[in-house]
Structure formats: C-alpha cells, structure tokens
Amino acid sequence: MQPIKSDTRRAVTETDSAVSVRNVSKVYGDVQALKDLSLEFPRGELTSLLGPSGCGKTTLLKIIAGLLEPTSGQIEVNGAKVTGPGPDRSFVFQDFALLPWASVIRNVAFGLELRGVAKSEREAIAEKYIREVGLAGFEKKFPHQLSGGMRQRVGLARALSVNAQVLLLDEPFSAVDEQTRRKFQEDLLELVKTEKKTFIFVTHSIEEAVYVSDQIAILLPRPSRVSEIIRPSSFRDKSVDNIRRDPEYLDIVDRIWASLRSYVE
Amino acid sequence: MLKLLSALIVFGAWEIGGRIPVSYAFPTFIDSMAALARMTFDGSIFVAYAETLQPLVVGVLISAVVGIGLGLWIGLSKGFEWLFSPIFVVMQAAPLAALIPILVMVYGIGLTSKVFVVCIMAMPVIVLNTASAVRNTPASLKEMATSFLARDRDVLLKIILPAASPVIFSGLRLGVSAGFIGAILSELKITPTGVGDIITYSRSIADYPSMYAAIFSIILLAVIFLNLLEKLENVLFEGNNRGYAAD
After folding, report:
1. Does residue B206 register a pLDDT over 50?
2. Residue A112: which of A94, A130, A100 has the closest Cα?
3. What pTM was computed for the model?
4. Which comes out higher in pLDDT, residue A11 or A248?
5. CATH architecture of the domain formed by B29-233
6. In angstroms, what separates the C-alpha of B232 from chain A's closest C-alpha?
7. Considering CB atoms only, which of B141, B148, B243 is closest to A162?
8. CB pair distance less than 8 Å for A99 and B159
C-alpha cells in the first residue's frame, strides 16, 4: 500500500506548486551565482535546497524571500509574482536575528507588531506559538539568557506567528549543537504535518536534508543549477525513530554524497 | 558601598595633601567644604549657577538634539560622511581656548559666544558616536525587519535607534562632560560670570577654599547630571542594561 499512497501524493502535488522559480539568474559583479534556475515547490511539503558551500542556495532563498532581486527570471508564490518581501512568506535566519533588547514574547510578536496588530492580540498569538515550539515559561526572558537552540526556537515561533503559507529556513540548525539539532529535525517533521505550510529549507547536511524532506533539490555550483531532484517515497510516513535505519534513507544519503563528492574542496 | 569607599579615599588624600601642605594654594578638603557650605547658606552659589547653567543647558540641549540628528543623517546616508565627518573630527581636535577670541570677535561677549563654546565642546563626540553607531547596526537585524515587512520608519525606530542607543548614550555622556568643561572655560576666558567668576575672583584674593569649593560643586553637578542621563537611558531603552547576546 505504501508506494501507491506516495504515488498519488506526487500526482496531486506536481500540479500544485506553492512557489515556482522560473529561469532565475543572479549575477554579482562578474560572478554568476545562479544561472537559469527553475524549480517547483509543492504545496504543504518540505523541500530542501542541498549543495556544497558557494552553490547559491542561500542566494536563491533570499531571492524567493524578496530580500534580493534576481538579475533575470521570476518567482511566483501562489501564482503572484514576487517583487519584494510579502505576508505570504516568512524567514528563519541562520544567525537567529533576534532583537537583543527585546524579551522573547516581543521578539516572537515582532512580525505582527510591524503589521500593526494590537498589542494584546499579538501577544496572545505569540504565546500560542511560544508554547508550540516548547518555550512556555520563557516569555519574559531575553535572548542572551537562552541557549542557541532556544534562540532558534524563538526565531521559528516568530516566523510561524505571522501565519505565512511559505516558511523559508536558511540553515536554521547550523548554529546549534548536534543533539539539539536532532530534536529540532524531529520537531520540524511534526511541524510540517500539523501546520500544513510549505517549507523551503536550506542546509549543507546531507543526512539532515534526507531526514526532513519530501523533496530534495541538489544544487551544483559555479554557476548554480539544479542537478537532480530526489523524492524519498518509502520512509516519510514512518515514525521518527525508524527513518535513519530505513534502507532507502541510507541509499539516498550515499547517492547524494557520490554526486557531491567531486565538488567539495 | 565601593563607590563610598572610593570617595572616602579620594577625599582623605585631598585632606592629607592640604594639611602637608602640597602648596600654599591647595586648601584642605574640610576648609573647601566649609567654604562650599558658607556659599550655599549665603546663596551666592545659587546666584552663580543661575548664570552658569544658562549657556550650559542651552548648549547641551542644542548639542544633543542637533548632534543626534546630524549623526543619524550622516550614519544613514552613504554619500555625506566624507563631507561632515572631517568637520567634526577637526572640531574635536581643535584647541578651543585659541579659538575663543575669534568667537568673541564674531558673537560678542554675551550668551551666544558661551553657548557656542559649549556646543563646540559637546557636539562633535555626540555626532561622531551617533554616526558610527548607526552605521554599525547589524545588517542581519535590518534584513530580518525587511523580511517581516518593516517600512523604512520602522527600521529606523525599531531596529537602528535601539541598536545604536548604547553608543549614542555613551556619546551623550562624553558630550555632556565636555559641555561642562566648555561652560566653565567660557566663563574663565570670555567674561567672568557665575561659577567662573567665583573661581577667578577667589583666586585673585587668594581665597583658595572658595575656589576649590566652586570647582568641587561643578564636578558634583556633572556627576549628578550623568547619573540622571543613565537613568533616562534605562527608562527609554530598558533592554540596554540587560547585556547583549554575544552571538
């Protein structure tokens, strides 16, 4: 039954993209960072952008976010062309980007504050997401009183609280330790299931990408292009404890390493 | 407690230095305090401060408002740093006492010249600190605000100003201290009025306790003022006294 189920899911998602990247190029001075890159991001799924450093994955993510402008090509989110940051996307930063002078609750509510939501309303929403990411009781703390992992939970809660359909995560777990990172990955799987949002996830960890993704886009550098799209099929619905020993999981990790090996200096 | 102890040590050393005596012109701490008490009771110190505080307050207010404004503008615009920064660096380094005669020639011996002296002393450090604080706002915080749909005004008020506030306030503290020096300097160099008059007059009649009492009172006032400024910072930007995340 399992393969049939994942096949039907594929048939549905291929016609329904939350984000479409069409022929995007980005040139910095005389460096071509992205060249004619096209990619579809299925709605309600998590897509990883995976590649060696310098392959332009963060650049692509920031172009989707509207923080950078593509030199040519265009991005569509739910059929609308991206011209800048919008309420349909929210961003989780690699370095957390928390306001050091603001409490956890104000940091989480900051996106709503910028949207002009009244204080009592936005704090109620923020409290809900602080609970959801497991930081209940830390509302009045300040970022320097939290560990790296907890800071990124604040960043995640901030991105969730604005209720954007698309979440953009730029190597969100690269600055936290290995154990925290594993917990994060499990929580992220849970989040994809419950939140019904589209996640775009940049990472340089092969295991992490295979573990959390519905779809993995392998980017190769200079100039950056999509070399392969991998859709794991058999272990996505297994429990978090069984994924890492699934034969398909191990095969995909090996296959990706084989294709990336020659690009790593 | 430690502050009290440090004050005791300084005053004790002053008292001993006055008793040796280090110099005929160096009174003891107790004599100076007695002179200060006498001036307080006969009211002459209040009359003096009513005079001295005018150029000081006006000059410090102008320096703070104009200085922070200019600093923000220089820090935010990429093109104007080359034009303005050198002016304030020169102002900061200029030997002010040598410039006072020129100011007097242009603005006379009244309040205007004295306000000018206070401003020249106080403004450069406020402008330069504000500009560099604004320029060093973490780029990732600005990017974060932009991605969450901040308008330019939000970025300025909710990111740049709070991020720059500790350095702006340290500029203000330095500026205010320099302003105090400027106010006294202008009273010594332009026309002897207020506290400057007490200093000049008591020295001329060799009443050194009164002279040191006046100097002591101006330092005391400056310390009180700087503490108030710190309180103001803690009220306006309560996150500043909570320390910063290292990364």
Report:
1. yes
2. A130
3. 0.81
4. A248
5. Orthogonal Bundle (1.10)
6. 16
7. B148
8. yes
